[in-house]
Design a protein that fits this description.
Layout: E1 2-5, H1 11-22, E2 26-31, E3 47-51, E4 69-72, H2 84-99, E5 106-112, H3 121-134, E6 139-145, E7 148-149, H4 154-165, E8 168-171, E9 178-179, E10 182-183, H5 184-193, E11 203-207, E12 213-214, H6 215-225, E13 231-234, H7 240-250, H8 255-265, H9 276-279, H10 287-299, E14 332-339, H11 343-351, H12 363-375, E15 396-397, E16 400-406, E17 411-416, E18 422-431, E19 434-443, H13 445-471
Parallel strand pairs: 1-2, 1-4, 2-3, 4-5, 5-6, 6-11, 7-10, 8-13
Antiparallel strand pairs: 9-12, 14-19, 15-16, 16-17, 17-18, 18-19
């Protein structure tokens, strides 16, 4: 079966891709930037990548005509606070128009549960997309999920941040809102199970786990599963704006995502009864089981995808490949070079940088920079890294984005997603027995130049110390 997979670089898309390949299907992955999806682990005959931006009609000609099924996994919630409704509508209309020119029989759309009356903008937008796709000539199957629990999911990581960092919580009123969380494994089973199943054509299904829990219960059960004692006091005085800041500063989420999540969390997301799990013979996993499975994956370094895979920097939406060629003119540089004795060991240290491993020198200064970044609405250091030892292009690494991770060339190139009056790159490369470390900053106006000179003393100590520690000299 030939399947078109949109959102292939996203949290759900990456996991679904692996399952569909194992099932023997031929997959066409739609991505805005081919550099962000590594398909080298899959058979060449089964997986290919095409560059498609559903906000750019000219790129839609790349979609093949002979596809059987398409997955619509495009969401814009983390891209904008106010504009994502328009973006999602335009994407859906362009997708529908493009797919009607193909031989596609079925489109599977992963949406959100929309059974409340006073829906958030986020959930209203999902409902609008479903309406748009329903009017197409192809068969539509809609799966509506609530909170997805799995290693690397936004919900899981936010709950983990809150529980592990706060023994005592003064929390917003929306913690009393009820939800029906679902394990990521079940989500993938539902997505795979409805493939060309005629009984599901033209149908919408709410998918959730076997339990209905409040957000407070989600936090307390998570704490119990991790053998942590936590106290939560709910107060009615937190406005949505205060709640957004509360979520943003405590967790690793971006402010844009925090705002959209808070508005969504005020709405109960409970599944309407249906027989889909019986039809597809799916055993629903409990919330506690989902937590355990997530930590099993984390401990085994097998986290396939993370919510941080989504870009947080609007500039990078143009494609990370456009930033691999580091600019030379109009830039400030901090260049370091040091002799190395063991290239393999040094390369291992480079590939392990950031996250829990830290930055090898003056970590307290990196922590302070991350805190300041959060104060100014940036991503901070809390995103960490997905895997302690491996890096791939497109992944988040603390407040950097990996542009290039080539072990054969012994080169790692990072692009700053922190708040800056300009653009910044950090590059490591081992060549001819030397480690080269280059920090490049392209300032934006006078403030950019003043910023560079103000941090120059810190750079001297940080970058000198870092290259020495990496080289172990």
């Amino acid at each position: 079966m030939k399947i078109l997979l949109t959102g292939a670089t996203g949290y759900i898309g990456k996991r679904l891709l692996s399952v569909l390949v194992n099932e023997g299907h031929s997959i066409v992955c739609c991505v805005r930037d081919s550099k962000r999806l590594d398909i080298s682990i899959f058979p060449i005959s089964q997986v290919c990548v095409i560059e498609v931006d559903f906000l750019n009609k000219d790129s839609l000609k790349n979609i093949p005509k002979d596809i059987d099924v398409a997955y619509y996994l495009i969401h814009s919630m983390s891209a904008s606070i106010d504009d994502f409704e328009h973006l999602e509508t335009e994407s859906a209309l362009n997708f529908r128009e493009a797919l009607e020119k193909t031989k596609v029989q079925q489109v599977v759309y992963l949406s959100g549960i929309v059974n409340g009356e006073n829906l958030s903008k986020h959930l209203l937008s999902r409902k609008s997309v479903e309406t748009i796709l329903t009017k197409a000539s192809f068969h539509l199957t809609t799966l509506r999920a609530g909170i997805v629990v799995g290693s690397g999911s936004a919900s899981f990581e936010i709950i983990r941040d809150i529980v592990e960092k706060l023994p005592f919580m003064i929390a917003p009123l929306w913690l009393n809102t009820k939800s029906q969380p679902i394990a990521i494994r079940n989500v993938i089973e539902f997505l795979k199970g409805v493939l060309l199943k005629s009984e599901t054509y033209g149908q919408s299904y709410d998918i959730g786990g076997p339990e209905v829990l409040t957000y407070k219960e989600l936090l307390l059960q998570f704490a119990s599963a991790r053998n942590l004692k936590r106290t939560i006091v709910i107060v009615p005085v937190m406005t949505p704006k205060l709640s957004s800041y509360w979520l943003y500063f405590i967790t690793s989420t971006t402010y844009k995502l925090a705002v959209n999540l808070v508005h969504s969390m005020k709405v109960e997301v409970i599944c309407k009864p249906n027989n889909l799990s019986k039809l597809l013979n799916i055993n629903l996993i409990s919330y506690r089981q989902a937590i355990q499975q997530a930590f099993d994956k984390i401990e085994q370094q097998e986290v396939l995808s993370s919510w941080t895979d989504a870009l947080s920097n609007e500039t990078l939406e143009k494609g990370i490949s456009k930033f691999i060629n580091v600019p030379k003119f109009g830039c400030f540089n901090d260049f370091k070079k040091i002799k190395v004795a063991d290239e393999k060991l040094v390369l291992k240290r480079i590939w392990s940088i950031g996250g829990k491993n830290g930055w090898y020198y003056a970590d307290w200064l990196w922590t302070m920079r991350g805190f300041l970044d959060k104060l100014f609405g940036g991503v901070g250091l809390r995103r960490g890294r997905k895997n302690a030892f491996e890096l791939n292009a497109g992944e988040a690494l603390d407040f950097w984005r990996v542009l290039l991770a080539d072990k054969d060339e012994k080169r790692l190139l990072l692009y700053a997603e922190m708040k800056l009056p300009g653009e910044a790159w950090l590059e490591f490369q081992i060549k001819d027995g030397y480690l080269f470390q280059t920090a490049t900053f392209r300032p934006l106006g006078l403030w950019g130049r003043l910023y560079w000179y103000s941090v120059l003393p810190f750079h001297y100590f940080i970058f000198n110390g870092m290259i020495r520690r990496i080289a172990n000299n």
